[in-house]
Amino acid sequence: DIQMTQSPSSLSASVGDRVTITCRASQSISTYLNWYQQRPGKAPKLLIYAASSLQSGVPSRFSGTGSGTDFTLTITSLQPEDFATYYCQQSYSTPRTFGQGTKLEIK
Amino acid sequence: QVQLQESGPGLVKPSETLSLTCTVSGGSISSYFWSWIRQPPGKGLEWIGYIYYSGSTNYNPSVKGRVTISVDTSKNQFSLKLRSVTAADTAVYYCARHTRNAMVTGDWFDPWGQGTLVTVSP
Question: Any idea what DSSP says for residue A76?
């Protein structure tokens, strides 16, 4: 199985801040990497697919970069609705695996 | 747009079988892969397995041997059966579609159902 490791596990930030979340794969996965946002009590929502492609309807303050084993999700100018948990997920092979999540909290 | 809705019992006794159905509306189940994903309370996401509309399947080794995913294209539904459940199977269960396009690599889960909590308890 490909292990996905996110850092940090939690993060405190303020509205207007720029934050970066990192995801590392245990082996190279090219750009087979997706990012999701999950608000409490809700299903995950796709933000970024194929490492850097912005899902339709997702604000442009979200961006993704990386290839191989190292990936980042960046949120510029945090908005109140961005405080949530973020997950990366690889689609390079089965079993599909997710990172453990990064909880973004209001400072 | 395509919407997914999970349905099934919210309480299952230990050692029994968990059975859930995902109904797809607003689009056809054909030509796509469909997955079940679960999330124990307060924890992260675990992929359980997928099924292609033709019926081929792939399961996570963590549940292989206990799980069956099936599809009913006439009803636009796919289903999950998880046998011999324990408290560790208590989770919110989501169904989701694998989406891909020709321009980029891989696939991704979109859309998702709203999720249904299944509790394993006597």
Answer: S
The residues with which B20 forms a beta bridge, in sequence order, are B80
Tokens of B94: 């989501």
Contact A12/B at CB under 8 A: no
Closest CA to A5 of B32, A29, A78: A29
The pair phi, psi for residue A10, each rounded to 5°, is -145, 160
**Residue B64 predicted with pLDDT over 90:** no
Q: What percent of chain B has pLDDT over 70?
A: 100
Per CB-CB distance under 8 Å, the chain B contacts of A45 are 112
* Contact with chain B for residue A5, Cβ under 8 A: no
CA A45 to chain centre: 11
Q: pLDDT by residue (tens digit) across A4-49?
A: 999 999 999 999 999 999 999 999 999 999 999 999 999 999 999 9
Give A 37-96 residues with CB within 8 A of chain B: 42-46, 49-50, 53, 55, 87, 89, 91-92, 94-96
Count Cβ atoms within 10 A of the Cβ of residue B41 and give its class: 0-12 exposed, 13-18 middle, 19 or more buried: exposed
Q: Who's near A86: CB < 8 A, 6+ residues apart?
A: A6, A21, A35, A36, A37, A38, A47, A73, A101, A102, A104
pLDDT score, position B96? 98
Beta strands in chain B (DSSP E): 3-7, 11-12, 18-25, 33-39, 46-52, 57-59, 67-72, 77-82, 91-99, 108-112, 116-120
